[in-house]
Amino acid sequence: MGLTEKEAAERLKAQGENTLGESRRTGPMRIFLGQFRDVMVMILLGATVISVLLGEISDAVTIILIVLLNAILGFVQEYRTENTLEALRSMTSPTAKCWRDGKLKEIDASQLVTGDVIELEAGDRIPADCAVLKAAGFFSDEALLTGESVAVGKSAGDESDTDNSLNKSNIVYCGASATKGTCRARVIATGMATQMGRISEMLRDIDKEPTPLQKRLGELGKVVAIICLVVCIAVFGAGVLRGENVFDMLMTGITIAIAAIPEGLPATVTIALALAVSRMLKQKALVNKLHSVETLGCTSVICSDKTGTITENRMTVTELSTAEDTYLFSGMGYRVSGAVTKGEIAVNPVTEKALSAALRCGVLCSTAEISAQEPPKSRNRGTLAGKGEWSVTGDPTEAALLIAAAKAGITRQSLSAGYRSIGEFPFDSETRFMAVHVVCGSEKRIYFKGAEEVLLPRCSMYLDGSGKAAPMTAALRRDLAERAEDMSQRALRVLALAVCTSEELDPQRRDLVFLGFAGMTDPPREEAKTAIRKCSAASVKTVMITGDHKNTAVAVAKKAGLLKGGKAMTGAELDCLSDEELDRCIGEYTVFARVEPVHKLRIVRSFRRRGEIVTMTGDGVNDAPAVKEADVGVAMGVTGTDVTKQAADVILMDDNLATLVNAVEQGRCVYANIRKFVRYLLSCNIGEVLTMFLGLLMGMPVVLLPVQILLVNLVTDGLPAVALGMEPPEKDIMSRPPRRSDEGFFSGGLMGRIVFRGILIGLSTLGSFGTVMHMGGSIEACRTAALITLVVSQLIHVFECRSEKRSLFRLNPFGNMKLVGAAALSAAVLAAAVMVPQLQVVFSTVTPDMMQLLTALGFSVAVPVICGVI
Ligand code: ADP
Ligand code: MG
């Protein structure tokens, strides 16, 4: 069936990859040229050309070199960022299950060619336009193409049909999603030839929108730019009025503008966010959109799945209750050993008719696979001895049943002779049960497994100890319900097993024979407990949402440390509440049980109406709307379906709550870091502008020459700021409440601190300039001193910006080695510029004498020391 790899490779060459008009990658050259797009830089380069014409060659060369160096720095960072983001995009690229060389393989969807035969199931995104060959209850959501929001049924039609026009019932379309059932289909159009390709110009789905923070900072940058321009014009005017050379003053004005206007702010924010994204990826959280990094940090409610996220999703059947007896199973987890006992006594499953019937039902109703490395030995039939662990593929609930049956010597192989499956009614978290149609000897049966409340009411008989069906009595029904209740209170997930004879696969039958209850444990993950504790310290509410029974949910919640005074509600109770009532009380609940996907949507909406920032996890197809609605939608990487992953902002590669909480921490950290480097950049810029402006106002000579200003800008703005963006999270970051999403960026008096510190930097630079002048230094010596003071002040300030709460002297100076390295490099460049004779010519500096050096350093150190002491 399908193509061979060789045919496929040939067709791929002829047809091209199955992708929709590739989001054009920004090439390295474009990025590099982009560095010069800035108006101010253009003006500077223009002015430099003029200065060459005027004969000022050496200055011109220096200016061009510095501008180039700056551009290279910017380029390297931006190029790396672009690469990181590109890598992320390719990680989320879809795959397809495709027949090649007669085998079913999972391949990259971009490698599909016409003629390939693929398999689709609920939750998949359809990777190309295909003709349906075989379908079982298959529905597809084509809203993206046709606007029709109701899923359309698909069935096999003309197999050789290659016409992919819209609205055909035998064609599935690229970009649509499978909502129900399964289907086999042949690819008839790929890439731009698909219907989706035709409209893909309209939907470039990769998100290049700036994040709200970037937008806000972009606006801030504009305001600062305008202020700077005004100041520059003032400096220029004041200089000219005082009789300075007009062209020199023009150059000075332009260089101040370049140094002070934070045009790179949005880019630096992108870099910080992208770095956070790659750090999160190392911790197994894949963030689709930069925007979400920010929002994650504001999260105030986490709505999490139970199974697999809070618990390990390694189910073990520990007890099985038939109508007349209760059996215990030993051997935890997936270990290949264990025994079945009744009380203390080992049993022989062959003689326990009801037990073995129930276990057989469990095996027949499972599609999971278990396999052991070495074939296990069954010593007597109720005991299994083997080494190591089962390796499991498929639903852990089903694997647990298979393992339990194996302990009693019942396996799929041992049943294959007597039982043949001919149809299936698949499990769905809305119906909460599944059924298989099986031929057994001369009769046909339906085996059921599912939630106890769904199946028990449908049982009109039960299997007694001798294996005969007997009528169900009211007393027994009550007794069984109580036993199930008791199991669920002990944190066991309870599955009912039942059977009936039937010619048709009618899943709604009500004359079932009760076989037994399987009770399985699924212990909470250790990391999840820690994560939940972390959340409560960080004032983030964790809510558990599960399809399981309320008792089971509550018991697991208690074990995981999640309940703490919170209450539990079921989906049915939720249905009885109006939106207003729900909004009023939802804050008191931490557990939602027996929940269907529609309820998740209501829960998200209700929390959001209360002004919470909601992070919601999901795995099934039906979870997608809730995941989309949440502020941060999270999909499970392992168990999640394509559709949910596409709706999500974050994908947890290990399905683990702890990973999500780490991502929240990273989100908070990156926001704090952005505040840190914005604080740093702005106060430094204010310092630079003030130095020049006040200097002129106070009648001093021009304090710094254009090349010197550019040098300051080069050594202080670039690397130290980026390194500051890589600060590790502060220790208390997860012990404060989340920031409100509408909180201003400069909240908590940040603006005041920036301006104040900026003024101090400016004044100390002027102080150093004036003092050296007073000591009789030459104008070059004064400028050199000012240059040293200005740079060193900023390099000290960058360390002050590491914390908003603690002063410089309370921080471990080596907490961020990248920053130490960046500062050391900048200091070395400064030292070279004032000490190396050749560079002295370039930067018009002189080697300072001891007194001058001490003065310059003294002024830099004075402010932080005084601030630290106060
Ligand atoms: P969860 O939110 O814990 O993942 P599910 O939606 O998977 O919950 O399951 C809800 C209920 O459906 C379970 O309590 C169980 O009774 C039933 N159930 C779960 N998995 C299966 C299965 N594979 N076959 C039959 N019934 C199942
Ligand atoms: Mg589940």
TrEMBL record:
- Name the predominant localization: membrane
Q: Which GO terms describe its cellular component?
A: plasma membrane
Q: Name one GO molecular function term.
A: ATP hydrolysis activity
Question: What's its membrane topology?
Answer: Multi-pass membrane protein
Q: Which UniProt keywords apply?
A: ATP-binding, Cell membrane, Magnesium, Membrane, Nucleotide-binding, Translocase, Transmembrane, Transmembrane helix
Membrane-spanning parts = 31-54, 60-76, 223-241, 253-277, 745-766, 819-839, 851-869
Q: Where is the signal peptide?
A: none
Domain Cation-transporting P-type ATPase N-terminal, residue spans: 1-56
Give the Pfam families listed for this entry: Cation_ATPase (PF13246), Cation_ATPase_C (PF00689), Cation_ATPase_N (PF00690), E1-E2_ATPase (PF00122)
Subcellular location(s) per record: Cell membrane
Domain of life where this protein originates: Bacteria
Q: Which family does it belong to?
A: Belongs to the cation transport ATPase (P-type) (TC 3.A.3) family. Type IIA subfamily.
* Name of the protein in question: Ca2+-transporting ATPase
